[in-house]
Amino acid sequence: MLSLRDDEVESLKTLAITQRSEWAARREEERQTVELSLGRTDERLMRLTDALLDDLLDQELFENRKRSLLLERKALRERLEGLTATHQSASAKLIEFLELAKRASLSYRSGNLY
């Protein structure tokens, strides 16, 4: 049976909380980077349309570049959705596991299985 002392559980919880903060900061940085990339992609689409209107590109080249930019924009939006979606991090799962393990150990010792 898994058995951790209270100080070990607290140390692991502290570590998990620290990791959660670091992961959240990294996720926020990546979200900002993706948003900037989305903005640049939209600007490139506008410039591409302007080039077509100014007769700097033929229709076929325009369509090929536009398709490429739209695929890039779609991938960036999906990535952004993944970053902004609420999900339970590994550290939160670890904290929950530690609490359950601690309760299970206490329940076993007291004879209270529920």
Describe this structure in words.
- Helix 1 runs antiparallel to helix 2 and helix 1 runs antiparallel to helix 3 (90-110).
- It contains three helices and no strands.
- The chain has helices spanning 6-53, 59-84, 90-110.
- The longest helix is centred in the N-terminal third of the chain and has 48 residues, at 6-53.
- The protein has one domain.
- It has 114 residues and is an all-alpha fold.
Distance between the termini: 18 Å
Domain count: 1
Low-confidence stretches: none
Task: Specify the overall morphology.
Answer: rod-shaped
* Structural class designation: mainly alpha
Number of E strands: 0
C-alpha-based Rg, rounded: 25 Å
Count, helices:
3
Helix content: over 70%
Oligomer: single chain
SS strand fraction: under 5%
Largest pleated sheet: none
Calculate the mean pLDDT score and round it: 85
Helix and strand run: HHH
Structure characteristics:
single chain, 114 residues, mainly alpha, 83% helix
Care to give the gist of this entry?
This protein has three helices and no strands. It is mainly α. The relative contact order is 0.15.
Task: Please render the helix and strand layout as text.
Elements: H1 6-53, H2 59-84, H3 90-110
Helix pairs in contact: 1-2, 1-3
